[in-house]
Specification:
The strands form 2 sheets. The protein has a 4-stranded mixed β-sheet with strand order 1-6-5-4. A two-stranded antiparallel sheet has the order 2-3. Helix 1 runs antiparallel to helix 2. The chain is an alpha+beta fold. The chain is globular. Helix content is about 20%, strand content about 20%.
Length: about 140
């Protein structure tokens, strides 16, 4: 499988309403982000939280994901005070705009929970691609 390293394609400033408990974010039937707090008994890493997010929502809660399943759910994470860079083992087309929000809000929630700045930006890079990179800024 040939992986193409895309340039950072999304720079997002999340307005997620991040809470200090660092939940995962899934999508409800009305297409709104909803927190799903999974008790793990420890403060996990951003990569750990994203692996849980990629595994899908818990059954019976009426939540779903807008991220295509991936056989390689491991995300590469680089953090700085005001920037969290994520390299995702996905193609951009495999993640809807709400899926982007799920990833950004989950990463930012864990970053804040670990003492990172609430004003941090999250940059996403996709390693699989067959089209030119896109860039999207939101607040």
């Amino acid at each position: 499988m040939k992986l193409l390293r895309a340039l950072a394609v999304c720079l997002l400033l999340a307005g997620c309403g991040v809470r200090p408990d660092g939940p995962l974010y899934f999508v409800d039937a009305q297409q709104r982000l909803r927190p799903d707090e999974r008790k793990s008994g420890r403060l996990g890493s951003i990569a750990d939280a994203l692996a849980l997010l990629f595994s899908g929502a818990a059954p019976g809660q009426g939540l779903h994901t807008e991220i295509a399943p991936s056989a390689l759910p491991r995300v590469t994470v680089t953090t700085e005070l005001e920037l969290v860079q994520l390299t995702l083992p996905l193609a951009r087309r495999e993640v809807s705009p709400l899926g982007i929000d799920q990833i950004v809000c989950t990463a930012l929630g864990v970053h804040v929970q670990g003492g990172g700045a609430r004003t941090a930006k999250v940059r996403l890079g996709f390693t699989i691609g067959d089209h030119r990179p896109r860039r999207s800024d939101t607040s």
